[in-house]
Amino acid sequence: YDGKVGATREEAMALMQAVGHDAGVETMRAWADWLRTHDKGTGKLGSVGWCFGGFWSLETGIEAGTDVTVVYYGRVDQPVDRLKALKGPVMGHFAGLDQYID
């Protein structure tokens, strides 16, 4: 969110909704590249996210080629052709009683 923090639920929702897809992908790719080449890393990369972060975890797996992707909830309704870009295992956690994302 470019350093911004929502102090209320409404402010947090507004920040979340203002994230553009292309800018988000660019940010996730940049962080993935940085992490893969970090001198204390192994070159392997996984992504984990819940809800909004679950969507971005999956997007990072698709767009940056993570070695493993974990999604807790999140929007995962992606076309099969996009999902074929995933390079490693994917673990999804979903709640049947959640009234927001089922």
Q: Helix count, per DSSP?
A: 4
**What proportion strand?**
5-15%
Q: pLDDT below 50 for ≥5 consecutive residues: which ranges?
A: none
| Secondary structural class | alpha/beta
3D shape: globular
Q: How many extended strands?
A: 3
Task: Pick out its properties.
102 residues; alpha/beta; three-stranded parallel beta sheet; 4 helices; 3 strands; 41% helix; 14% strand
Describe this entry's structure for a reader.
- This protein is an alpha/beta fold.
- It is built from four helices and three strands, in the order ααβαβαβ.
- It has helices spanning about 10-15, 20-35, 50-65, 80-85, and strands at about 45-50, 70, 90-95.
- A three-stranded parallel sheet has the order 1-2-3, with helices on one face.
- Helix 4 links the parallel strand 2 (about 70) and strand 3 (about 90-95).
- Helix 2 (about 20-35) packs across helix 3.
- The longest helix has 16 residues, at about 20-35.
- The chain is globular, with a radius of gyration of 14 Å.
- The mean pLDDT is about 95.
List the helices and strands and how they pair.
Elements (H helix, E strand, L loop, with lengths): L8 H9 L3 H16 L9 E5 L1 H13 L3 E5 L7 H4 L6 E4 L9
Parallel strand pairs: 1-2, 2-3
How would you summarize this macromolecular structure in one to three sentences?
The chain has 102 residues and is of the alpha/beta class. The chain has helices at 9-17, 21-36, 52-64, 80-83, and strands spanning 46-50, 68-72, 90-93.
